[in-house]
Write a structure and sequence with these properties.
With about 325 residues, this protein is of the alpha+beta class. Among the domains are: about 80 residues, Alpha-Beta Plaits (2-Layer Sandwich); about 60 residues. About 55% of the residues lie in helices and about 20% in strands. It contains eight helices and eight strands; from the N terminus they run H-E-E-E-H-E-H-E-E-H-E-H-H-E-H-H. The strands form two sheets. It has a five-stranded mixed sheet with strand order 5-6-8-4-7. Strands 1-2-3 form a three-stranded antiparallel sheet, with no helix packed on it.
């Protein structure tokens, strides 16, 4: 009996040891996968909630885009509208304008608007340039080299949500149009025909609107817009050097004020030189007005003064010697 009990106990211990060993082996060999996704290293396929796919792209994986493509800051299909404002100045206006024309033409762009102002002492050019989006930064850099850049501001407008929303609405409206046309072909009563034709007309208008909106977005996304202002100056403006002490800042401010004062006097002298004839006319008219005023004032005083008594009358002074 003791031998049987020992054999039974040994068998139970052996079974327990075997079960513990099996459990340990299963835990060590189990690989947990993300919910709804399984990668197959042998085939390169991926499993998602819709089933097996034969591609191994970022769309099949529930991971951030940056981890898939570290070189791109945004997804590939993002719709971005790039635009910028630039202010330039130059002492060689004609050369700068020609250089700007060559830059725009070389980058495959064009001038959407162009205004040349030749009035006054200096000339200026205001223009709006459209350039392919891939050459957006190149245009800004090269234009900044053609003249002295004083201001540059870039803008980025993400219209992906609006773009793809309009695209989905367009697909829906086209499907709706097909179904309405099928119903119109089967309609028999005049009332149904009129109602279907009205619905078809509204749907076609919506399709035209969405199609135009997408074309407008494609134009803005494909070609960036840059507004450039080019001014001719006598002296290029430079930024004040960063001052460390209050004295240096004060000296820089005095220097800037002196430079602006000299520029103001020069501009005033040029204004007088251009308008001397008009200035003489204004001065002559002013002098004539002053003379008329003084004469009128003198006459008023003479009218208010008391009249003088006649000679020999009462109150007249006696003649000399009496």
């Amino acid at each position: 009996m003791k031998k049987k009990k020992r054999s039974v106990t040994a068998l139970v211990l052996a079974l327990l040891l075997l079960a513990l060993t099996a459990c340990g082996g299963d835990n060590g060999g189990t690989v947990e996968s993300a919910p709804g996704m399984f990668n197959s290293a042998a085939t390169g396929d991926a499993w998602n909630e819709s089933g097996w796919t034969g591609t191994d792209s970022a769309a099949d994986y529930d991971v951030p885009q940056e981890s898939v493509d570290s070189g791109a800051s945004r997804p590939q299909n993002t719709k971005i509208i790039y635009s910028a404002d630039m202010e330039l100045e130059t002492k060689e206006f004609d050369s700068a304008v020609q250089a700007l024309d060559h830059i725009v033409e070389g980058l495959g762009g064009w001038f959407e608007s162009r205004t040349l102002n030749q009035g006054g002492s200096y000339r200026s050019l205001s223009c709006t340039v459209r350039v392919p989006s891939e050459h957006f930064t190149a245009l800004l850099d090269q234009a900044g080299q053609a003249a002295h850049m004083t201001y540059r501001q870039e803008y980025q407008d993400d219209v992906s949500e609006s773009y793809y929303d309009n695209e989905a609405r367009l697909t829906t409206q086209r499907t709706k149009l097909e179904r309405l046309q099928e119903l119109l072909a089967k309609a028999e009563s005049m009332e149904d025909i009129i109602a279907l034709e009205s619905a078809i007309s509204d749907t076609e208008l919506e399709i035209e609107y969405l199609t135009g909106s997408l074309r407008h977005y494609d134009s803005l996304v494909g070609y960036s817009t840059v507004t450039i202002s080019l001014r001719e100056v006598y002296r290029l403006s430079t930024d004040e050097e960063p001052a460390v002490t209050f004295g240096q800042r004060l000296a820089a401010a005095f220097s800037t004020g002196l430079r602006r004062g000299v520029d103001g006097l020069e501009n005033f002298a040029l204004f007088l030189a251009r308008n001397w004839a008009g200035g003489l006319m204004v001065a002559a008219i002013g002098a004539a007005a002053v003379l008329v005023f003084l004469r009128h004032r003198r006459k008023r005083r003479e009218r208010k003064a008391p009249p003088s008594p006649p000679d020999g009358g009462v109150g007249a002074p006696p003649p000399p010697g009496q």
